[in-house]
Automatic annotation (TrEMBL):
This is TraX protein. It comes from Enterococcus ureilyticus. The chain crosses the membrane at residues 12-34, 46-63, 75-94, 130-154, 160-189, 201-228, 240-261. Keywords: Membrane, Transmembrane, Transmembrane helix. The keyword Transmembrane applies.
Length: 262
């Protein structure tokens, strides 16, 4: 009886959600890298819930991290390494059939900045400190304002290279992989104490994409594992994702390039 009891499903931990996201992401990136070889479009469907899962996990992680500043710094370093590594790899290999535009670290950093801003506003309201409220508003608006500035620079031929490099080092909402969908992160953070509301926000976003005719509506399937989240951390894998994410993309890119060129 004891073995039966202990073997009962107790829900998903943060670790489990990350593993689910990583597996689905890997399948999606197989599609991305092997499109020139005729990879079927349905492989792309597996990736549609991935960003939503990582957004939810980032909300959980940010809510419980000991140092939110260090959390953001890790994401920023990850964003820079991903950008520099992908650019260098493409220059060396010269495989133009596949473009390495992936950088989920940028999405998560923008979302985390907004969560940090929400915290500052909350602290300011509690202590009745206007400067903290103002700082929080500035932090939340920064990825949006920086997007506008970078877009204006890109429209100026003499400043386009400045804009390109600015995109690489500045967290800007419109230059994330998922664009406005990243706003789900601060929204999920505001609703962090109400799982049903978080899932409702995800569902409403999925409905929007459905009527847009985008397969991104399949993000709705992220709701199931999120509803089954048990609130526990599970096994530690603090740095695994920071290493696995760029390495698996670069490795698949190299394999695709080799297959295509031979």
């Amino acid at each position: 009886m004891e073995s039966l009891t202990t073997s009962k499903f107790k829900g998903f931990t943060t670790f489990d959600l990350k593993i689910i996201g990583i597996v689905l992401m890997f399948i999606d990136h197989i599609h991305q890298m092997f499109v020139p070889m005729g990879a079927p479009d349905w492989l792309d469907w597996f990736g549609r819930p991935v960003a939503t899962l990582f957004f939810f996990v980032s909300v959980v992680g940010f809510s419980h991290t000991r140092s939110k500043e260090k959390y953001m710094l890790r994401l920023y370093i990850g964003m820079l390494i991903m950008t520099l590594g992908s650019f260098t790899l493409q220059q060396i290999v010269g495989y133009e059939e596949v473009q390495l535009m992936n950088n989920i670290f940028r999405d998560l950093l923008v979302g985390t900045l907004m969560m940090y801003g929400i915290d500052k506003i909350s602290e300011g309201r509690s202590s009745k400190t206007f400067s903290k409220i103002a700082l929080g508003i500035v932090i939340i608006l920064f990825p949006i304002i920086s997007s506008g500035i970078l877009m204006l620079l890109m429209s100026n031929p003499s400043a386009i290279m400045v804009a390109v490099w600015g995109v690489n080092v500045i967290p800007a909402l419109l230059f994330t992989e998922n664009s406005f969908m990243v706003l789900l992160i601060p929204l999920l953070y505001l609703a962090k104490n109400h799982r049903w509301l978080q899932c409702m926000l995800i569902a409403l976003t999925a409905v929007f994409f459905f009527f847009q005719g985008s397969t991104q509506w399949m993000m709705i399937f992220a709701v199931l594992p999120i509803m089954l989240f048990n609130g526990e951390k599970g096994r530690g894998m603090k740095n695994f994702f920071y290493v696995f994410y760029p390495l698996h993309i670069w490795l698949l890119y190299l394999i695709s390039a080799y297959v295509f060129m031979h």
